[in-house]
Write a structure and sequence with these properties.
This protein is mainly alpha-helical and 389 residues long. The protein is 81% helix and 0% strand. The chain has two domains: 34-188, no CATH class; 193-350 and 367-389, no CATH class. Helix 2 (34-61) crosses helix 5 (150-188). 21% of the residues are buried.
Length: 389
């Protein structure tokens, strides 16, 4: 029987405990600055989205500061125009929702009464009046709590607006001084690390930049399309329907399904053929999105198999809520790309000419043949990854 080296076992256990303690300490420290990190992350995301336009304008205008200024003014003008177009219809829809609340309540009571009669005909007792009273009581309590905390909500809205303004300023600084900061960062790195860090940086910029730009564009397209369809089929609150569809579209994999719930529910309250028309319309939109828009807008940036994207979404939702659900797909795609590159030895391969560690002209093989002997894990990840390039 082999002899156990208890000293080594003790050292390994102490090392693992020390690592867990360090990670816990890092988590506590980062938790103290969570809001600051969130603002910086939002600014970095805005810089990712705007960087391609700034780079092109820099080559055209030959001055990066002027390119950043032109991009900022253009983005502000486009945002103001979009809000001007959306604010009026959205405010009208919200006013209509408040005015129609009694009518929707009566419809709910009638529907529950019909359900009660149907259940009683089968020997099941059901008191819809008690259910309506409970729901109304909870709604009144929620409204009262909302009104009583109006000052807190106002303060939070102010904090959100201040954070958004700070994120815009951070994005401008990153766009303006990003290349210089990047060069200083690489100069501070040890020479053997620069090649691998540059490879990770290019992949992260490719995945996150493409994903963020693609999701925003998809949200805009789907929101406008669903809102126009709601108006075409005579559904109430078309601006509100389009807005919620566009926001849900930001959530990968299940966003289209969640965005279809409200228009289908409103269509059920219309004359019978309307719900069929709306259902067919939403199915057509989903098919066009999955087979035409997504492969051309975000497919090259993420390219995960639907099963892998769904598992990543569930894991991200459990770990970090809605933010985790939104970022789960690009994080998983980036990890998958780097794993395949490590398998075939691309992280240590000579880099082409360009920025530190190579340029954007690096060839990718689309997840095809890789280094032999990669094992079952690599093959399984390749199947789940689908098309990673």
């Amino acid at each position: 029987m082999p002899r156990i080296d208890w000293t080594r076992v003790l050292i390994v256990c102490l090392a693992l405990l020390s690592l867990a303690g360090v990670l816990a300490l890092i988590g506590i420290v980062l938790g103290r600055f969570l809001q600051t990190l969130a603002v910086f992350a939002l600014g970095a995301a805005l810089a990712f989205v705007a960087r391609p336009l700034v780079d092109r304008l820099s080559r055209l205008l030959r001055r990066r500061g002027l390119a950043v200024a032109v991009t900022a003014v253009g983005c502000l003008a486009a945002t103001a125009a979009f809000l001007a177009l959306v604010a009026g219809p959205l405010a009208a829809d919200l006013r209509d929702v408040l005015e129609d609340l009694p009518r929707w309540q009566q419809r709910a009571v009638d529907a529950l009464a019909g359900l009660r009669r149907w259940l009683q005909s089968r020997g099941i007792q059901f008191d819809e009046a008690d259910l309506v009273r409970q729901a109304a009581g909870r709604l009144q309590a929620a409204v009262g709590s909302l009104l009583s905390s109006a000052a807190v909500i106002t303060g939070r809205i102010g904090a959100v607006l201040a954070g958004a303004l700070a994120a815009v300023v951070i994005a401008l600084y990153l766009l303006l001084d990003g290349p210089r900061l990047r060069d200083r960062f690489y100069q501070a790195l040890p020479e053997p690390w620069r090649r691998g860090v540059a490879h990770v940086e290019r992949n992260a910029a490719d995945v996150f930049g493409g994903y963020l730009r693609g999701q925003l564009l998809l949200g805009l397209i789907i929101g406008v399309t669903v809102g126009a369809g709601a108006r075409l089929f005579g559904l109430p609150y078309p601006a509100l329907v389009g807005l919620q569809a566009g926001l849900f579209e930001l959530i990968p994999s299940v966003g289209a399904l969640l965005g279809s719930i409200l228009p289908l529910a409103l269509a059920l309250a219309q004359p019978f053929p309307t719900v069929l028309y709306v259902a067919v319309f939403l199915v057509v939109v989903a098919q066009l999105e999955n087979h035409l828009l997504v492969p051309r807008i975000t497919g090259q940036a993420v390219g995960l198999h639907p099963l892998a994207a769904l598992l990543a979404l569930l894991a991200g939702l459990e770990v970090a809520g809605l933010v985790g659900a939104f970022l789960a797909a690009p994080v998983t795609a980036l990890a998958y790309r780097l794993f395949l590159d490590w398998q075939r030895g691309a992280l240590a391969a000579p880099e082409p000419a360009g920025a530190p560690g190579g340029g954007e002209g690096e060839e990718r093989d689309g997840g095809g043949d890789h280094a032999p002997g990669r094992g079952l894990l690599a093959a399984l990840l390749e199947k789940l990854g689908g098309r990673a390039r």
